[in-house]
């Protein structure tokens, strides 16, 4: 069964970027520390990263994050979602207006202008098709940014929350949670490494 998994790195004080994020500094001041684990040689970090990529049938992201990853200093063959992995998922971008051009033309992009719920539904269709083609269950992964993940949780669109808790206090930046209705989470796994604590919760 295809699940909707929100997967994001977060600081100890709840931020998914440092202060002043923008196209030239997508993670803001000091925000690179949030993703140290993704470049770690620790076998548990590598396993978490590999399993996350392997289960991704489609990936949802917001327009601001798309502008960062598709920008001149964004993803390439060595840095990016699934870089170095065998397969790459489809990407679905939530936006009010599609971009005029895409730099990363080797990736499969879909731009949805009718809201987050429709974007998740489109991604589910892509993930289910990929599951059928591959013969294994694949999921939809919401990779961010923070507003996209937070809004999806608030809207009840998320089945699983996967947090990579980095041992850093940023003091300011983009918060993951900004209020909203209470949510009950059921902890499913905790994997501590020297660069992060990987936490998985079912969202009820």
From TrEMBL:
Classification via SUPFAM superfamilies: Dihydrofolate reductase-like
Q: Which domain of life is it from?
A: Bacteria
Kindly give the Pfam families that the UniProt entry links to this protein. Answer: RibD_C
InterPro entries, alphabetically? DHFR-like_dom_sf, RibDG_C, Riboflavin_Biosynth_HTPR
Query: Where is the Bacterial bifunctional deaminase-reductase C-terminal domain positioned along the sequence?
Result: 4-191
Report what the protein is called.
Dihydrofolate reductase family protein
């Amino acid at each position: 069964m295809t699940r909707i998994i929100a997967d994001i790195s977060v600081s100890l004080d709840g931020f998914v970027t440092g202060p002043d994020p923008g196209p030239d500094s997508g993670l803001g001041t000091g925000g690179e520390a949030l993703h140290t684990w993704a470049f770690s040689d620790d076998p548990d970090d590598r396993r978490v990263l590999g399993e996350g990529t392997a289960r991704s049938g489609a990936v949802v992201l917001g327009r601001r994050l798309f502008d960062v990853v598709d920008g001149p200093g964004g993803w390439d063959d060595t840095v990016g979602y699934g870089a170095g992995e065998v397969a790459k998922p489809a990407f679905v971008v939530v936006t009010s207006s599609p971009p005029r051009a895409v730099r990363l033309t080797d990736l499969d992009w879909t731009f949805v202008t009718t809201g987050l719920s429709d974007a998740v539904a489109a991604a589910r269709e892509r993930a289910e098709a990929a599951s059928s083609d591959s013969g294994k269950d694949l999921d939809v992964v919401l990779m961010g940014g923070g507003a996209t993940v937070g809004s999806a949780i608030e809207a009840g669109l998320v089945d699983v929350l996967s947090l990579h808790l980095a041992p850093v206090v940023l003091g300011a930046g983009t918060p993951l949670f900004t209020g909203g209705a209470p949510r009950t989470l059921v902890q499913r796994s905790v994997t501590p490494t020297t660069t992060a604590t990987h936490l998985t919760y079912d969202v009820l």
